[in-house]
Amino acid sequence: MVETTTAPPPGAGRQTQHTPAVRLSGGGGKRWRWLVLALTLTTAGALSGVIALERLDDRTGIVVADADLPAGHVLTMDDLRVSDMSVSADISFVAASRLEEVVGQTLTLPVSEGGVLPESALGADAEFPEAERALVGAVLTAGNYPSSLGSGAAVSVVVNGEEQSEAGPQAYLALVRSLTPDPGVEGAIVVELLVSSADAARIASASSAGRISLVQVHPRGGA
Description:
The protein has helices at about 30-60, 100, 195-210; strands spanning about 60-65, 80-85, 135-140, 155-160, 170-180, 190-195, 210-215. The chain is α+β, with helices and mostly antiparallel strands. It has a five-stranded antiparallel beta sheet, with helices on one face. A two-stranded antiparallel sheet has the order 1-2.
């Protein structure tokens, strides 16, 4: 007797598995509000960065005072510095590229330390010389001044030929307001010296006798 085994139909005994649906529970509206807020903040941050860069691009180098400067003061390089800042179009200022041009010029207005140097404060209309100061002219021959001397330099005016003390010849602090070659004497220069009014008469007398020499010193140095 032959036994016949019948194979189960395909799929018989096999259980079908269903993947449960994932349900996003509650708070959908809140999530969208947070997403919108995040996008808004990101956009605002980007815009503020662009505005900051634009403002940075508007900054320019301008000349400012490196100390308190009175009206009538003759500008030297040590009186000034360059600062990068944004300035309104209606403010008078001197661009950094013109820094060397203003050295030797006279202030018509006082400028406080860190203040913008106004273009309008440069000129010859100041109350000048200022109180307790005097302007003295002198002709100096070669050898009586440094060859590199220029307008705005701080100098010590050395008076020669007087009765000298044990300390040596007398010397007085001054500023060179202007300096030009003397067309009549080779190597000689004509200078204007801004000096203390207390020293002006003695320096002028010595100058007329050809008894002064100039020594360039540090702007805040001594005689």
